[in-house]
Design goal:
With 527 residues, the protein is an alpha/beta fold. It has 2 domains: 5-263, Rossmann fold (3-Layer(aba) Sandwich); 334-520, Adenine-n6-DNA-methyltransferase TaqI, Chain A, domain 2. The protein is built from 18 helices and 20 strands. It has a 9-stranded mixed sheet with strand order 3-2-1-4-5-7-6-8-9, with helices on both faces. Strands 11-15-12-19-16 form a 5-stranded mixed sheet, with no helix packed on it. It has a 4-stranded antiparallel sheet with strand order 10-20-17-18. Strand 13 and strand 14 form a beta hairpin. Helix 1 (15-29) runs antiparallel to helix 4 (73-85), helix 1 (15-29) packs antiparallel against helix 5 and helix 3 (45-53) packs across helix 4. The chain is elongated, with a radius of gyration of 26 Å. It starts with 14 loop residues before the first helix and ends in a 7-residue tail after the last helix. The model has no long low-confidence stretch (mean pLDDT 93). The chain binds S-adenosylmethionine. S-adenosylmethionine (SAM) binds at residues 23, 38-43, 67-70, 73-74, 97-100, 103, 133-135, 162-164.
């Protein structure tokens, strides 16, 4: 029989190096589609070691949970870290979960090797590797959010995980099991986090690496409320460059590493340590910021947005925004997504302004919108600039009113995430206009936005100040309507005053806007 020597540990190989090596071998065998469907992106060793180093350990015996363990690189790095910092350590109990049967043979090899390695250092290691679904096996932990007198749960000193990330279908058993704990259409990683929050011992430590998307937006609101009822963030680590973190798996997600601990008798901790690095290479040279926890998490609001400034300047920006009580909602201003979905509306979209049988009105696309400027028409293949206004197309057209049009997507190369341009209804005589689906439009539902209001709001959204704030609360390149609905805004009169001043100066370029905003909010100390 031929033995695959690649799969056996090398002499003196550290268990974490071995887990990393087997992870690479497995990843090469597996297709990108397969990995994506299983949410399978292995943690690079440098990050695994960094996550492990965030934990503390003084006991003789500890228990670890590693849900979605892959080749076990996280729990193995944690065990190595404990061995190096705690000479008293005698016993480690590990419970790991992994559903991918093809991967299990690797996990079994790495955990068996860890056992051998630890026994050479006089540490007893017992482990259970469940080849079952972590979520379905832990329904009781999810039930515990609503049923305080439910079953007793197995709990752990440490829970370390890089959970799978993908959206679950509404009818998935896991979505059903997590009903009420996360929003209806859940991303599986938030369910892993919620379960972990329930399975932590009183002084336990939860260390997760996840996308940053849970930190804001209504989609994760229910999750945030439940999660932050159970735990506090002790440390949050952000990477400035998205490319570096999971580069070998071509993942461009903005990720966050969090260390959390259970709330102590229902009270919040006072401080949160926010660390950041450019990528993995400078993890030994962190930027650090200690922040009051109520600046980072909106404990008093139902939203529980997580603000994560990484520099003093960003901190001052968050502090400024947190003093504002306004929002689009409060000013009776709505934001909606353009109703024209091009592939369903080809019958109505026109390249040319002429049509004998119907009225033709403008159709605005993402590329028509730049900062404070709506350029139309712009000829581009398959991006007809006109749309028929007739009975059948009425449901996808909007009333010809004053709007602020805002791009819903920015590309990774765009300098700014928020790009908005005003549209004034007097530009045309028609009753309706078309707005394509990659744009949001901002308007007053019953009534209208006047010129100064639109210019003022447009200036704010296009400003560097708002762009920076938006990046602090959102790791995403998408600009969601819900997020903007609740974004803090300065007093209404101040928005109008900014608009009036810009109209008076008749200059709408970004330098003028930024200078005016610096003066209006007395930001000289920040910039
Ligand atoms: C993002 S990978 C991380 C793997 C490993 N922990 C690491 O850090 O390299 C998530 C792992 O969770 C596994 N997984 C996906 N769904 C799961 C489930 N419902 N229960 C347990 N494991 C699951 C995947 O097969 C994958 O190996």
């Amino acid at each position: 029989m031929k033995v695959n020597t690649e799969l056996t540990p090398k002499e003196m190989e550290l268990p974490s190096d071995y887990a990393d090596r087997l992870g690479l071998i497995y990843a090469k065998e597996s297709s990108d589609v397969d990995k994506k469907s299983k949410g399978q992106f292995f943690t690079p060793l440098a990050i695994a070691k960094f996550m492990a180093s965030m934990s503390t350990c003084q006991s003789e015996a500890v228990s670890i949970l590693d849900p979605g363990c892959g080749t076990g690189v996280l729990s193995i790095s944690l065990a190595e870290h404990f061995k190096s910092i705690n000479p008293e350590l005698k016993n480690i109990r590990l419970v790991a979960y992994e559903t991918d049967v093809k991967l299990i043979k690797y996990s079994q090899l790495t955990l068996a090797y860890l056992k051998e390695w630890l026994s050479q250092h006089n540490i007893k290691f017992e482990y259970i590797l469940h080849i079952t679904d972590f979520v379905l096996d832990n329904r009781d932990a999810l039930d515990a959010f609503t049923n305080l007198f439910g079953k007793k749960l197995d709990s752990f000193d440490y829970i370390i995980s890089n959970p799978p990330y993908f959206k679950l279908p509404k009818n998935d058993e896991k979505t059903k099991a997590a009903k009420g704990v996360v929003n209806g259409h859940a991303n599986i990683y938030s369910i892993f986090m919620a379960i972990a929050a329930q399975l932590l011992k009183t002084n336990g430590e939860l260390i997760f690496i996840t996308p940053r998307s849970f930190s804001s937006g209504s989609y994760f609101q229910v999750f945030r409320n439940n999660f932050f009822k159970k735990v506090d963030i002790i440390q949050a680590h952000l990477f400035h460059s998205r490319k570096d973190t999971f580069s070998r798996d071509k993942v461009l997600q903005e990720t966050i590493i969090m260390k959390c601990q259970p709330k102590t008798q229902g009270t919040n901790r006072n401080e949160i340590l926010v660390t950041s690095s450019s990528g993995t290479r400078d993890l030994d040279n962190l930027e650090t910021l200690t922040l009051p926890s109520n600046l980072v998490i909106e404990y008093d609001s139902a939203d529980k947005i997580v603000f994560l400034p990484t520099t003093q300047r960003e901190r001052e920006i968050v502090e400024l925004f947190r003093t504002w009580n306004g929002s689009l909602n409060k000013y009776n201003i709505q934001i909606s997504t353009g109703p024209v979905v091009a592939h369903r509306a080809w019958d109505y979209i026109q390249e040319q302004p002429q049509n004998e049988s119907s009225e033709i009105v403008p159709l605005f696309w993402l590329h028509n919108v730049s900062k404070m400027e709506l350029t139309w028409p712009i000829e581009k293949p398959n991006k007809g600039q006109y749309i028929k206004s007739e009975q059948k197309s009425r449901s996808i057209l909007i009333e010809n009113k004053n709007y602020l049009l805002l791009r819903r997507f920015s590309s990774k190369d765009d300098k700014s995430r928020l790009i908005a341009a005003p549209y004034f209804s007097n530009a045309i005589t028609a009753n309706f206009i078309g707005v394509e689906n990659k744009l949001n439009y901002i308007y007053r539902p019953k009534g209208h936005l006047d010129r100064a209001e639109i210019i003022g709001l447009g200036a704010l959204l296009n400003s560097t100040l708002f762009d920076q704030f938006f990046r602090i609360i959102n790791g995403n390149v998408n600009v969601s309507a819900t997020e903007l609905r609740f974004m803090p805004l300065p007093p209404h009169e101040q928005i109008i005053e900014i608009g009036k001043q810009l109209i008076l100066g008749n200059s709408f370029d970004n330098t003028t806007i930024n200078n005016l905003i610096i003066a209006s909010f007395e930001l000289e100390t920040i910039y």
